[in-house]
Fold:
Amino acid sequence: MSEVSPRHVLCVLSSKLGLPEIERIAAGFGGFVLDREYSEDEPDPRMPDAFEASLAAASFDEADWAAVESHDTVGYLLSAPMMRELAADTSRRLLAATAALLSSGASAVKNESSGITHGRDRWLALADLAAGAENEDLADALVSAWVKRPIYDGQVLYSCGMHLLGAPEVEIEAGREDLTDDDLPDLVMHLDALAIYLLTDPRAEEIEDGAGFRMTEDAPRWVLRTGTCDRYDEDDLFFNPYGYVRLTRTG
Structure:
């Protein structure tokens, strides 16, 4: 396993909060600091394209796009490199910090470490869900907030961002290149079920290559395949040192 420790890099846009205020609010949630090298008190014309490329779903409305277009400050917040057992808690605190920033006047937020962004209302809803949640409900909120999925490479649907929760990426064989929108819901349901399993079931810490996986006792059986992260270089923010777990068909 790689010795690389994942970290959050959060891009915060604002036209109301300056960099000192962004740093002060984030610091209140523990362990988050401003990257002074890349943060700047001026607009970045690349941001509309960057946010469009990072959308997880259609959660941006006209107000969100207007906020991105009108920003005059770009702050980059960093978490410390995360030990595996502390990653989920760090991600939970950063989600709460994200909600606090948006409630205090930040315009928009995206995560550079998984390439994901949501609209303001979606960020706030996810933070609200995570605030009082435990176990599977908390895992679901954190996956929804920080993990970009599904990404499709022509054969496999996969995630990016599980490293921020201390877990391998999840993948599932799509089985063919002519995947349609009608095929996606069932595949994504399996992808998400595997993600929640990895985050909540103690047995997931000892997954063996070739083990079986079923969503329910009478559901079709899949086979779990494990491997190292080969989609990204080790110095890439997307790199997952815990590798991946892939659902493959049995026949």
The radius of gyration is 18 Å. The mean pLDDT is 94. The longest helix spans residues 87-103.
